[in-house]
Amino acid sequence: MASAKLAGMTASEPPFTTASPFLTTPQDLASIPSLVDEPLESRLEIYAYFLGSDSQRSARLFSSSAIPPALYPLCLVLRYLITKEHLRLGESSKRFNWSFKQVWAAVSSGCTAYTVHQALKSNPEATTLPAAGITRDVSASTLEPTTKDIHLQSSLQITLHSAWLLAQTLLLCPTPFDTPPSSLVQGPLFHELSLSKTQVTAESVLQDPNTTRLEKEVLQWVLDGTDEWLAIDVEALRKAKRERKKEEKRSQTSAAAKQAPQPKGGFGLLMLNDDDDNDEDD
Question: What does the domain layout of the chain look like in residue ranges?
Fold first, then answer.
């Protein structure tokens, strides 16, 4: 029954349409309990569907050996938020949607929070954090997050919590989702990375030896099909434009200097004077 209903769900990206009445009308309420009798694969597909992921993209996530199931919610929710903002904002998406740096901040801080959670879960008596949790300064005492950063980070937390309730309904907790939403976010680290003066790109992050394999896999899955919807970093563009103008000015100055006649040095002028004197003596 649930598989047939899932097959009838045609929308693959948020916002969802009302073209399909499945699981939305009072007549369908009686069949909802049968969802829990479905195999894990079907329940995961239903979970991913309600977070706007199509079956092919979801299958790639579920078949990944590098991304643990506990991080599926982070991957799906983050991609859901980017897609939803793109469809809501339209042309303004290039200005107000998530930027790459903000996506990277969410991925890196989320993976770090997950790593710390797993380490403490395996060793509740630990008195120190694992290396992955202390490689960066997560102190928020000197941070002044922007309004946009606060909005995006809050929307991530709220949506993760809602997705957790959905996962509970589908009996996906505590297996395979054994990590609560609070352990998939790290607010201070998110803001630190987002406010960093260092300019980052997908290429620089993926080539950085400090980037873990887990971070790379999650980032690549989230950006697949969404990278063109991300907001442009206006400040980075302005900086690049200033640097480009400086370089052009230096090139023009260098070219002009090469074309101008070079004055002779003082010693050369003395030699010329000596030659002139000799000519007069002759």
Answer: 37-124+142-236
Question: Would you call 251 helix, strand, or coil by DSSP?
Answer: helix
Residues in the chain: 282
- pLDDT of 155 over the 70 cut: yes
231 φ/ψ angles, rounded to the nearest 5 degrees: -70, 150
Largest CA distance in the chain: 123
**Helix H or strand E segment including 168:** helix 147-169
Q: Which residue, chain included where needed, has tokens 């394999």?
A: 213
99 bridge partner residues: 231
Instruction: Give pLDDT tens digits for 88-136.
Output: 888 777 788 999 999 999 999 999 999 999 988 888 777 776 665 544 5
Q: Please, are residues 80 and 52 in contact by the beta-carbon 8 Å criterion?
A: yes
Neighbours of 212 (CB within 10 A): 16
From residue 98, alpha-carbon distances to 2, 9, 151, 217, 223 in Å are: 34, 28, 10, 19, 11
CB 227 within 8 A of CB 202: yes
Selection from 216, 177, 209, 222 nearest residue 78 by Cα? 222
Q: What is the dihedral of CA 79, 83, 84, 86, to 10 degrees?
A: 140
Whether the model pTM is above 0.90: no
CB 140 within 8 A of CB 194: no
Over residues 221-226, mean pLDDT = 94
Burial of 62 (C-beta count, 10 Å sphere; 0-12/13-18/19+): middle
- Identify the CA nearest to 54 among candidates 82, 76, 32: 76
The percent of residues in the chain predicted with pLDDT above 90, rounded, is 50
Looking at the predicted structure, is the pLDDT value of residue 56 above 60? yes
**Which residues lie closer than 8 Å to 219 by C-beta, 6 or more apart?**
103, 104, 107, 202, 205, 206
Query: Which pLDDT band, with edges at 50, 70 and 90, does 239 fall under?
Result: low
